[in-house]
Amino acid sequence: MQLKMIFEQGKHVVVSLSGGMDSSTLLLKALDEYQTVTALSFDYGQKHRVELERAQSLIDYLNDKGHKITYRQIKLDGLVDLLNSALVEGGDEVPEGHYAEDNMKATVVPNRNKIFASITQAVALSIATTKKEITNIALGIHAGDHAIYPDCRQEFRDADDAAFRLGNWDSELVDYWTPYLEGDKFTILQDGEILCQKLNVNFHEVYKRTNTSYKPYPSGNSDYKSASSVERVEAFINLGKPDPIQYEDDEGLASWEKVQGHVSKILAEHE
Fold first, then answer.
1. Which segments in the chain show pLDDT lower than 50?
2. Model's pTM, two decimal places?
3. Residue-range domains of the chain with CATH
């Protein structure tokens, strides 16, 4: 079974908010296009749990600016010692480098997107059947999602959608919204600039309340050598703006110039 070919946009949307740059921009877009927005974040024992703090901070900032969001952090941290991944507490060291390198498979969390999808689908279907109206699930998937993550592939999403529709009554009331399907991190960030203006929020204030690093320092500052950070920095370089978050390395705080220099070298090696 394929995802529905004709998209039906409703008044209500559920956003899976990791606290990263992509999902935070998706949240802005949801606020611009929907009447009601529900956002979910997941605590699964991730080492980079600073992303949950950033997500809460962003929600608080947007609510203070008059944008109403229903927000929940879903506790799954009881799984932490049962999951084998470099991204969870007790796992191996998070590798550095580029996503093209094989060692990045260590950052896969088994069945993570399926777990998140099941909960998000349940919430969306509950909203839809209560209101008796189409409710959308917002997915921040984009062309830059990496093949090393099997649960980011189209085949997985199609099979997951088929299972959802087979396993639930009234599933036709839920549809997927994927506004960045043909984009990448740079085009998402470009859209974020436009959305900040439309929603009357400050670009710097929004994006300093995000985290993309899989190896944040105890201070909460981001590294700039892990693959997720390299991609983020590349997007800001292409945008021509400094990243508002603070970067750090083992020598201390890192300037934006130092961060750009390192990432530019990594990117040149993988051209």
1. 1-3
2. 0.93
3. 12-206 (3.40.50.620)
